[in-house]
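Cross-check.
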Amino acid sequence: MSMDLIVSILIPNVYSGLIYLQIPGGGVFDVILPRPLVETVLQSSPHIEAGTLVNPFNSQVYFSVMDHGEKRGFKEQIVTAHAEVTKVFSFRIIQGEEHCLHDPEKVLIPQSLAEKIFGKESAVGRHLLMEEPVWTKEKTELVVGAVYKDFPGNSQLGNVIYTAIDPAFAMDNWQASNFLCFLLLDTPESALLVEETFNRNFDFTKIGKEEAQIQLTPLHDVYFESAHRDQRILRGGNQESILLLLGIGLLVIIIAAINFTNFSTALAPGRVKSINTQKVLGSSDKVLRMSLIIEAVLISFFSWFLAILLLGFLRQTHLFTFTEAGIDLVNNIPLLAGTALLSLVIGLLAGLYPARYMTSFSPALVLKGNFGLTPKGRQFRTVLIGFQFTVSVVLIIASSFVHIQRKFMQEFQVGFDKDQIAVVELSGSLYVEHRETLANKWKSYPGVEDVAFSSEKVGGQDTYSTSGIDMNDITIPYYSIAVSPNFFSVMGIPIVEGRDLSLADEKSSGMPMILNKQMRDKYGLELGLMDFRFFMGNIIGFSEDPKLTSLRLQDANYVFMTGVPYPLQISYVRLSAGTDHFAAVDHIRKSVAEVDPAYPVHIEFYDQIFNQLYQKEDKLSRIISLFSALAILISIVGVFGLVMFETQYRKKEIGIRKVMGAGIRDILVMFNKIYLHMICLCFVVAAPIAYVCIRKWLENFAFKTPIYWWVFVMAFILVATITMLTVTFQNWKAASANPVKSLKSE
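Predicted model, tokenized:
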């Protein structure tokens, strides 16, 4: 089954005709375009029904509202776009006017934010006062024009504030790439015509790329294509991970179907006599088998119905926090229909063997009572149980390594002293007007050693402001981070050559900067002046190589500079060892409140930042662990049913063995040996499968945990122990029964 078919089944086709624009070959910035290019594309074809640019780089903005005479502050992301964004993405308007963004003062806000700010009161017409500038927009007081229903968490558009970009902003700047472009075409098939016509007529030398061409791609393809991109621009994910989870889900369903088959077979002793009585009374095998199959299908369909009810209940709780997709049943009709059909197919397949099995015995054989242990029947049931054991072992090993990798990432030595740092996000105005005041207030607390600032939250994201150096016919890419002079001392990053930044550097006109050691060693860079494409930089030192991105990525090049003309809104408060974090955080909040009582202070420590950075791995770990627990539970239930079936037909054997001197221990060992041998065989099959899967998954990380042998042993011991306990519990009654009674009944 192709991934496109899977996506079409699992995701409603709400993006028909919706296209995003890119210029292939641009690397990270192939979808980030200059505004004049976007505007030209939007006007290029009658097949474009609507289109919009979206500025994904607008950060959170501090604004305030008046609530019954009291000023309340909020910090939310504000995205600027064209007014047609509501048509392109089919916003579901709850309050207000859908086309309100044609008024430059109006904004669209999500329902969740409207409730957060205004409660049950209507948000339409309420004023939002911008306490700091909104990039690409001059207006500082905006009015809520409409409230839209929140998008699901896995949508490309976020649940943020939308407002119209200023008409004249960057309209003539062909070199500044800052915007995404989305188009709504009359039909999806028009994309190729629009693309070819534009590429044939447009002069790409305007953007400095003579050989460039635009490419129009359906939006439903963007998720897997954007796995390598900055996730703040376009959401993306790993296709292998999706297929892995889908495969695991199907495996769990398969072992559940196997258990259904085993239990139906285990009920044969109680039903075969009834079935053969119906045969004697004239019922045909065909009719009897059909009735048993219909019964299995109805049971499977009823289970699907109960699952839907359970899902409806769980979506009201916080138990599904590991999924971002909307699980509103009304909006997932194709998924409901597909799973309903799947339940019918499973019921049919799971009921075929028991129906044939229970109608295949002659009345004479039934009266003898030994039909249950036919060699073929035992082999078939053993194979089914063996499949369950194999799946369980694979899932246990997989979930263990996902957890180990997640722990490895969180405990990795990142090259800076993160343990005693409180990260505080400020507004631009707070930094510009009150930086020194706040730093002094914070340092007045006995547990605060020093305070540093930077332009971005280091160590908390996979990408930063990107640029490059042209040198020796190559371009050296690097991440640019503006910092305060004491940044390296506060963060505990050693300087290995040259000198550290100083207060004098902050006021210097020579753009003093420090590069990381990797950049020096790889490209042979030296201290002194260097041409950085758009400016001359003065390299005054080289630092050790801090790991400022996740372990999914290789080490990067970093250029740290000071004295930049824009705010450094991320502050790092270094706490002394043993300082009460709660008291220190309370002091930081009170200090900010003394300067601006309305500002919503957000304070984090690096354990929280890393949890956010690795949330995908955390969710994957929880999902696979849940599937593993389900697989083990279902497998043990299957073992329980098979042991019950075996015990029913071996009572006479057990009785004879006890008469011949066998004790309870001997009987239990006999049964446990059978399943222990089965588990050993299944482990031999499961271990290589798990190894290949884990090695493939770990290839997504530049830094990864070793594949430990003891995890495989642990999985074997866990499955074996649970199985042995189940077998012992189930056979204890038969092993301790009076042999005279069992022989008499036989």
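Residues 1-16, 365-372 have pLDDT under 50 and may be disordered. The chain is about 45% helix and 20% strand. Passed to J.P. for a second look.
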